Each structure stands twice: as structure tokens, then as C-alpha cells.
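Protein chain data
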Amino acid sequence: MRIFCLEQNYFSNKKEQLNGVTKTPLIFTKPYSALFQEGVSFFYPEFADELYCSCEIVIRISKSGKNIVENLSAEFYDAVTIGINFSAFNNDDRLLDEELFWLETKSWNNSSVIGKWLPANDFTNKQNINFCLYKNREMVQLCNSGLMIYNFNKLISHISDSYTFNIGDLVFTGTQVNIGELLSGDKLEAFIEDDSLLELDIN
């Protein structure tokens, strides 16, 4: 199982979307070890000087495939949830190397967390899904899937041009912004619409 993550997949607002700004999402992958396992505590990484996160919609791949055409992409995922991707930074000069930056700041153990799954068919309009993140009971992120540059179907088709999907792969579909620095003791809660799907304490 692999985790596919997207950067630069959101317009900043509706005006930018209407103006048709051309962007291509940046794809990077994470290993299975990056997925936080339910039932254990989440600890602030020992190597990190700063920790940030954002919430985003995650889709679960249910069918293997490569070079998937867009109009068939909906057949390749079966569930949707909310996820949190963490980024950890330190003052290591080695991270000026771009490859090390992606590996060490974004792909460490437990750097991706997912919530409870909802059937994809529950969403009649997948381009109008609201999702949000609370930190210490204060909303710090609010977004809608309609601001995606590449919607779910386009993403699956786009990613499958370069990678082969396997059953169980996860796609973190991108976000607009990080919410600011996190500290030990912070409590996070993430929603899709009115459903609280993920709660996490930073220890």
C-alpha cells in the first residue's frame, strides 16, 4: 500500500478558479510506515523543531489500474474520509537537498493520519464537499472540494499516468494552506460536512 499526496491542487479562491489559473499538482508518495496506526498515541517528533499540518480529503483505491481514463476513474475508489498530513522541520542543513527535504519533513513514521471512512456513493456531488479542521476547539481551516484544480476523477487519471494503483492505496487530495505551528498538548478534530471523522491529541 502506498500513500499518494498532492501539493498545489487548490485554487486559493473562487475568483482564481474562474480566471482559469493553470497549475499542475505536485505528486509525492509515502510508504505504509507513514500511516498513523489507530490505537496508539501520536507524539511530537523528537527530531523536529517545528511541526505543521493541514487537513484534506482522502480517497481509498478499490481497484488496480494504470493509465486510467478520466470518465472511468470513479470506478477505482470506494470510500472517502478526512486526513491530516504533518510536516516536521528542523535546522538540519542537509534538508537544503530537495530529495531529503521531501523524505524527512513529510514522509516520517506516523506523518499521515486518516479518519473514519464514508462510502464514496454517499456523496452525490463530489465537487461540493465541505471539510474543516479545529485546533483546541477553534476552527483553523475551512475548505470545499469545489476549489480543487484536479477533482477526484482527474487526480486518479493524472496519477495513474505515472504510477500503477493497487487496492488499498490512499490519495490525499491536497489542501490550500497549513494551519500554523502545532505544539504538544494541542487537540485536533477534523470534519467532512457535519461528521466528525478524526480526533487526535499531540503528545
Residues 3-201 form a domain with the Fumarylacetoacetate hydrolase; domain 2 fold (CATH 3.90.850.10).
